[in-house]
Design a protein that fits this description.
Growth Hormone, Chain: A, 16 helices, mainly alpha, 394 residues
């Protein structure tokens, strides 16, 4: 069987999960008014999803290696849908956050399960492209949500918009359970091939691996801050409507999607399967774009439009190569488990980024210091990663 239909299936599943799990980002301007939130409280919505993800990240990677891609991916989509659907019924910030955490439990399996599918179905010299494609599920889902959910919420209300996103995830769970197939070579691993949680320690004792994981945390801090606040910043800085502000966020998702595809191809075809150079350049691009955003309303509106795509390319574009690198460090035996650890690190950045970004904005009364902070994070990663010795034997 060709691997490409399988790749399309897991990418679509990831995208539908992202629409549901990340729905609070494009709806942030509406939720701010409907739930009477402050800007710092808005910064709690997206981290609530990722708190669930961080909590379950390592178990999710372990379950992926033990149970296989089909069972864990379908179950994850189902839980994402249930959590988001219950959040749509919430009448207080506290209950909404709690149900978003539940949705995050399901979202935690997306990277380990889809990453393992790529490792199982694709040879090493095709994995950069394949990982980049499947990772576009996150940005394509974010793009679809940013374009569709604000108009739907204005037409109906924000609860029905969240409910529609939740229903899509539940339907996708059934599709994955019915359609996904495991390649014959990986269908029946022996007991000796099953990873044990305690074995992850041998990877964590390698300093280079730890630095990669910490860089993932740093880059995710920047990515999640852009995702959580870009629409609100555009609305407040340039007096845009909620729909237009959502379209600015959609442009960032377009840039991130294109960047993941481009870097995957460059990595496979021109860099001999090396993943780090693309991550480094993405970090540098994101750093420069965030520094320009610090100019605020001094930027011409005509510049903001392409710059939104550039900031997405930089702050969202690194993810596919990053998880390809981590999965290859783990190899076929530990790909899911080590990816779960990487998810725990990366998504911990989401717990820090948006709340701190919001507090900096409220405390300073300006968006400028917050954007400069993100620029500094990207610059630090771009200077650190190239110094590491090779981590994958080729």
């Amino acid at each position: 069987m060709s691997p490409w239909p399988i790749l399309a299936l897991v990418t679509l599943g990831y995208a539908v999960a992202a629409v549901a799990a990340l729905a609070v980002a494009p709806l942030a301007p509406l939720l701010l008014d409907a739930l009477r939130l402050g800007r710092a409280e808005v910064g709690l919505l997206l981290p609530a999803v990722y708190l669930g993800g961080v909590t379950m990240a390592l178990p999710a990677g372990w379950l992926t290696d033990r149970l296989g891609v089909r069972a864990t991916l379908a179950l994850g989509l189902l839980v994402v849908g249930l959590g988001t659907g219950l959040a749509a019924l919430s009448w207080s910030l506290g209950s909404c956050l709690g149900f978003l955490v539940l949705g995050g439990f399901g979202f935690s399996v997306m990277n380990p399960a889809t990453g393992r599918a790529v490792i199982e179905w694709f040879p090493p010299r095709a994995r950069g492209v394949a990982m980049g494609i499947k990772q576009t599920g996150l940005t394509l889902g974010g793009l679809a949500g940013a374009l569709a959910l604000p108009p739907l919420a204005l037409l109906l209300d924000w609860r029905r918009a969240l409910g529609a996103a939740a229903a899509g995830a539940i339907v996708a769970a059934g599709v994955v359970a019915l359609v996904y197939r495991t390649p014959a070579a990986s269908a029946a691993p022996g007991a000796g091939a099953r990873p044990r949680l305690r074995e992850i320690g041998e990877h964590l004792r390698r300093p280079g691996v730890l630095i990669v994981l910490v860089c993932g945390l740093a880059l995710s801090t920047a990515q999640s801050s852009v995702l959580a606040y870009l629409a609100l910043w555009a609305r407040e800085t340039f007096a845009l409507s909620p729909v237009a502000a959502g379209q600015v966020l959609a442009l960032a998702q377009v840039g991130g999607t294109a960047s993941r595809l481009i870097w995957g191809g460059v990595s496979d075809r021109f860099l001999g399967g090396r993943r780090r150079p693309g991550v480094v350049l993405s970090a540098a691009i994101g750093s420069g774009a965030c520094a320009l955003f610090a100019l605020g309303d001094r930027l011409p509106t005509a510049v903001v439009i392409p710059l939104a795509a550039v900031v997405g390319a930089g702050t969202f574009g690194w993810v596919g190569l990053y998880f390809a690198l981590v999965a290859e460090i783990g190899g076929s035996r530990y790909a899911g488990l080590l990816t779960g650890v990487a998810v725990a690190f990366a998504w911990s950045g989401v717990l820090v980024g948006p709340p701190v970004f919001g507090l900096v904005v409220e405390g300073s009364g300006s968006w400028t210091p917050a954007w400069l902070g993100l620029a500094a994070i990207g610059a630090a990663v771009a200077l650190t990663l190239p110094r590491l010795r090779p981590l994958v034997q080729r």
